[in-house]
Design goal:
By secondary structure, the protein is an alpha/beta fold. The chain has 22 helices and eleven strands. It has a five-stranded mixed β-sheet with strand order 1-5-3-4-2. A hairpin with a 6-residue loop joins strand 10 and strand 11. The longest helix has 51 residues. It is extended and about 105 Å long. The relative contact order is 0.04.
Length: 598
């Protein structure tokens, strides 16, 4: 029996279906393309597809959506023999397979091979989850045809983003591996990519097997120079004629896509920087001689015998300058007026109120006025113009100088460092310093010996065989041991940024005690799991020939069995195909052997 309600429902469904079909036809007509529901078995991924990685969790989510709503946006394919190769939409294709779909809506188009690759690259780059090194390589491919600004427009990205990715493309494979697995940040990768491949390889070998962001940062810092702190005028085109101006130099990071921040000028050519630095120092000496200006190195007599300082003093003397050190002169600098921002930065680690910050500013302003008055009346008080410079960077500033009375008629002598002088040769003030320094050192040595003795005593006991459950103190000790000795800079920032809390005002003993108070077993477990992921062995070691790797592989089955099974399946399929080809090849060779025998 057909009811009025059921007739109405059926009629409603027919109307909805009809509307949907009309809408699809109108849409297809509007865009001039025909959508076909192709057998998913005839659709295959493009082996030349530049995108290699897909997020499994996101694919699973998309698969659930496809099960409920179908593929809302058709994929684009091109015909190749009896099959259809995907141009755009591999994620939708993979999700459809996961959802056990038999067909998939497709738009079939004709392309030239180069056009296909370019379309795939642009389509992939417009996604949010592109792996950075793949993204960099894809943008590098586009850069062979388009300027960075044009690529930025096509992808809806900033020029700086494109330039950074182009620089990242120059990273050697050894470092790209660390970017892919998340140990190396993109910005650090870009910093390493500033250097030639040979220099990158040296950095990689210097670092060793375990990734260390701190070590890499230090190497970058040692080989780059902040041009804002250069001792010479960076816009000077004549300082070293062959090099020209730093502002326009291709080795200035600001001209490579603001790699160190917006407009930050950093020199990445150490040899050129050192040449300009040396030339600027020679110019400074020449200015001192021509204008009869005192040139004072920022060296105290205490450190005069240090190797680099000795070279600087000798260089000044060889150029005919009388050498005065900081102990020989009184200096008046042009003071800088403090601001509330300066005060807040200076006292950033203090829990100050706005009123307390203002009180500090008022005091600083009063001191500024006093210093400014001294500076303005310097000439009247027999000060003369001079220049002080740093003995390593050669950065310098113009000041007012007065030579102290005891230095006017005496040839400058440089005493040995305080630690190398006998007590009898020291002033009473210096003797107090030496006594205190010696006592500090004695305590350090005593603590070292005491600790070693305690450890050796414990090693001789049966502590290791103790069957008691670990105490909180033991777990705290082991956690801090793991943290200090095994967690690198990236790991600390990524997983354990709040582990020790704010330690700026605590001694080491207070840090340990504070950690103990807040300690939870979850921290202990997290550290162990972190170490488990870090202490595995790569290269020739794997999950079937190394104890550490085998145990790790087995342990992870309890957490990610389905994902591990998926990876195993992919490798098994590749292996089976390869072995089948090998069997066929061996069969052919065996037949050839039999033919030769006959």
């Amino acid at each position: 029996m057909t009811t009025k309600a059921s007739t109405t429902r059926k009629s409603g469904k027919r109307i909805t279906t009809a509307k949907k079909e009309v809408k699809e036809k109108l849409t297809q007509k509007a865009i001039g393309l025909q959508i076909e529901n192709l057998s998913i078995a005839k659709v295959i991924p493009d082996p030349m597809q530049p995108r290699k990685t897909f997020n499994e969790a996101h694919l699973q989510q998309l698969s659930e959506s496809v099960k409920k709503h179908g593929v809302l946006q058709p994929i684009t394919v091109r015909k190749s023999g009896n099959e259809f190769i995907i141009v755009m939409g591999e994620r939708r294709y993979r999700a459809s397979k996961l959802a056990d779909k038999k067909t998939i809506p497709c738009i079939v188009r004709e392309y030239k091979n180069n056009d296909v690759l370019e379309i795939q690259i642009i389509e992939n780059l417009q996604r949010q989850d592109v792996e950075p090194t793949e993204e960099a390589e894809a943008i590098a491919y586009l850069s062979e045809k388009y300027a960075p600004t044009e690529i930025a427009k096509r992808l809806g990205r900033t020029d700086n983003f494109i330039r950074q990715r182009l620089k990242l493309a120059g990273l050697i494979e050894g470092f790209k591996h660390f970017v892919r697995n998340g140990e190396m940040t993109i910005s650090l990768g870009v910093g390493v990519a500033l250097f030639e491949p040979e220099e990158q390889q040296m950095m990689l070998e210097t670092m060793g097997e375990d990734f260390s962001a701190h070590q890499i940062n230090r190497m970058i810092k040692d080989q780059t120079y902040d041009l804002e702190k250069a001792p010479f005028e960076v816009a000077d085109k004549k300082l070293v004629l062959k090099a020209g101006s730093c502002v326009e130099c291709p080795f200035n990071a600001a001209n490579q896509g603001n790699l160190f921040g917006d407009g930050k000028m950093v020199c990445t050519k150490s040899a050129c920087y050192e040449t300009k630095k040396s030339k600027s120092f020679l110019n400074l000496i020449e200015k001192s001689k021509q204008e009869n200006i005192l040139l004072i190195p920022e060296i105290r007599q205490y450190w005069a015998d240090e190797e680099n300082n000795t070279l600087i003093i000798s260089h000044l003397e060889k150029n005919g300058l009388k050498v005065y050190l900081l102990d020989d002169v009184e200096i008046i600098e042009n003071p800088i007026k403090p601001t509330i921002e300066d005060i807040k930065k200076e006292y950033q680690h203090y829990d100050y109120s706005e009123d307390e910050f203002k009180a500090e500013l008022d005091e600083a302003l009063q001191h500024y006025e006093e210093e400014l008055e001294k500076h303005n009346s310097a000439k009247e008080n027999e000060f003369v113009k001079g220049i002080v410079f740093h003995p390593e960077t050669y950065r310098h500033k113009e000041v007012f100088i007065k030579i102290l009375e005891q230095s006017k008629n005496e040839s400058t002598t440089y005493s040995a460092p305080l630690e190398n002088r006998k007590m009898a040769d020291c002033t009473p003030e210096e003797q107090i310093i030496k006594i205190n320094e010696r006592e500090i050192r004695k305590k350090q040595i005593e603590n070292n010996k005491q600790f070693e003795e305690v450890v050796e005593m414990i090693r001789d006991t049966k502590y290791i065989d103790t069957k008691k459950t670990l105490s909180v103190d033991e777990m705290v000790a082991f956690s801090l041991t793991l943290y200090e000795n095994n967690v690198d800079y990236v790991g600390r920032q990524r997983f354990f940024s709040n582990l020790l809390g704010n330690t700026s005002k605590m001694t080491d003993e207070e840090i340990v005690e504070n950690f103990k108070k807040k300690f939870k077993k979850e921290i202990f477990h997290k550290l162990i799991r972190y170490i488990l992921t870090k202490q595995v062995h790569f290269g020739e070691s794997n999950h079937v020939n190394n104890l550490t790797n085998i145990s790790f592989y087995n342990a992870m089955q309890g957490y990610y069995k389905s994902k591990i099974d998926g990876i195993e399946k992919e490798y098994a399929e590749k292996r089976n195909k390869r072995e089948e080809r090998l069997k066929e090849r061996i069969t052919v060779l065996e037949k050839q052997i039999q033919g030769l025998k006959q």
